[in-house]
């Protein structure tokens, strides 16, 4: 247990924030012990769980106990000759887990290659990229109920996954800590998804035209991500800062009259509009204010441009973006990143 501990190395924005207490746990028993410590303090200490710190923005110090989850281990159970259940503990690095599965030729996670963070966080916002979300292969997750310290399992339906959303960001927020996640993956006859984004053209660049494998898809996704997203090791960021907004079809049609090139993906009576387009069209792409900027290749990604930004500065920048989009398009952007 460390006191007055700097969380700068534990968030990919690389902003300074101190935790009153900090500790790392490697098993459920240790976790229960430190939770007991927090609960027996008067008053009870607020708790913050940390995975890879790649979806979090500290705007102030954390006056409680920050717990870095380092539970490790991967296990598997065969279902039939085509499918396998693979379970990974919360502290496993997501990308390493994807690579582990690809080495065993287990399919289903390849489009989610190179997403930062840990396995235990993946259900929080139903991580997604290149036409796949974890809900597509998710079976269940084991959690610890923070109220009664009991173990509980959430199945697919109970997680209520949505776009960058789950029960753990809604009514389950702050109530559970995810300990491990189980996925159902294919062992053969993999469902190859190349139609999304630039996967197809990247495969062509790589000289791969037929018999595309899950390993090829992963390679293409890695190349695309490396070419357009800033590496948090070099430039602090948390990936997409905002969600793509969903607006009523009627509102979209009115906007289309004024901004005839506005892109939209209709789904029944609503339309999803790419937040990156709105931000770019409002002049924010590559724009820097003080230590913060919108990334020059990907407007949706806010960056700690100088390495000296405070969380408050990044938050204020995001508020300025939200206000300007609201004024121009009447659309209110929602932050994807968890604000502390
Ligand atoms: C360069 C870059 C690219 C990205 N691209 C994508 C992308 O393509 N798709 C996508 O979906 N996301 C993307 N992200 C966002 C991020 O990688 C994911 O949201 C990831 O799942 C966050 O994991 P983490 O372990 O780093 O979470 P953290 O930042 O450590 O935690 C996020 C939140 O979850 C809570 N939490 C963490 N672990 C647990 C747990 N075990 N139980 C309960 N609560 C917990 C934390 O308290 C916090 O509120 C990107 C981020 C970066 C930096």
Task: Give your account of this protein's structure.
- This protein is an alpha+beta fold and about 350 residues long.
- The chain folds into three domains: about 1-70, Uridine Diphospho-n-acetylenolpyruvylglucosamine Reductase, domain 2 (2-Layer Sandwich), CATH 3.30.43.10; about 75-230, Uridine Diphospho-n-acetylenolpyruvylglucosamine Reductase, domain 3 (2-Layer Sandwich); about 235-340, Uridine Diphospho-n-acetylenolpyruvylglucosamine Reductase, domain 1 (Alpha-Beta Complex).
- The protein is about 25% helix and about 25% strand.
- It is built from eight helices and 20 strands.
- The strands form six sheets. The protein has a five-stranded antiparallel β-sheet. A four-stranded mixed β-sheet has the order 1-2-5-3, with helices on one face. The protein has a four-stranded antiparallel β-sheet with strand order 13-19-18-17, covered by helices on one side.
- Strand 8 (about 130) and strand 9 (about 130-135) form a beta hairpin.
- It is globular and about 60 Å long.
- The protein starts with a strand and ends with a strand.
- The model has no long low-confidence stretch (mean pLDDT about 95).
- Flavin-adenine dinucleotide binds near residues 117, 125 and 128.
- The site of flavin-adenine dinucleotide (FAD) has 32 residues, from strand 3, strand 8, strand 12 and strand 13.
């Amino acid at each position: 247990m460390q006191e007055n501990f700097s969380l700068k190395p534990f968030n990919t924005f690389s902003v300074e924030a101190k935790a009153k207490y900090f500790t790392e746990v490697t098993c459920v028993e240790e976790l229960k012990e430190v939770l007991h410590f927090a609960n027996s303090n008067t008053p009870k200490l607020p708790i913050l769980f940390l995975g890879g710190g790649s979806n979090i923005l500290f705007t102030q110090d954390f006056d409680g106990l920050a717990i870095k989850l380092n539970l490790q281990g991967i296990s598997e159970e065969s279902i039939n000759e085509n499918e396998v259940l693979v379970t990974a503990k919360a502290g496993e690095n997501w990308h390493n887990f994807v690579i582990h599965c690809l080495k065993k030729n287990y399919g289903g996670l390849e489009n989610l290659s190179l997403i930062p963070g840990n396995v235990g966080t993946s259900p929080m916002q139903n991580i997604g990229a290149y036409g796949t979300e974890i809900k597509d292969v998710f079976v269940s997750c084991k959690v610890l109920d923070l109220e009664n310290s009991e173990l509980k399992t959430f199945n697919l339906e109970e997680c209520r996954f949505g776009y960058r959303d789950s029960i753990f960001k809604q009514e389950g927020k702050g109530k559970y800590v995810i300990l491990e996640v189980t996925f159902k993956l294919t062992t053969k006859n993999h469902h190859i998804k190349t139609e999304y984004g630039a996967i197809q053209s990247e495969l062509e660049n790589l000289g791969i035209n037929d018999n595309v494998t899950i390993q090829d898809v992963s390679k293409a996704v890695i190349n695309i991500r490396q070419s357009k997203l800033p590496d948090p090791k070099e430039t602090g960021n948390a990936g997409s800062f905002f969600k793509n907004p969903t607006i009523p079809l009627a509102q979209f049609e009115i906007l289309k009259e004024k901004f005839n090139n506005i892109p939209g993906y209709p789904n029944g009576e609503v339309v999803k509009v790419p937040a990156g387009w709105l931000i770019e069209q409002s002049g924010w792409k590559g724009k820097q204010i003080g230590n913060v900027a919108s990334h020059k290749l990907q407007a949706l990604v806010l960056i700690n441009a100088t390495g000296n930004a405070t969380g408050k500065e990044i938050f204020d920048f995001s508020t300025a973006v939200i206000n300007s989009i609201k004024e121009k398009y009447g659309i209110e952007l929602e932050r994807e990143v968890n604000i502390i």
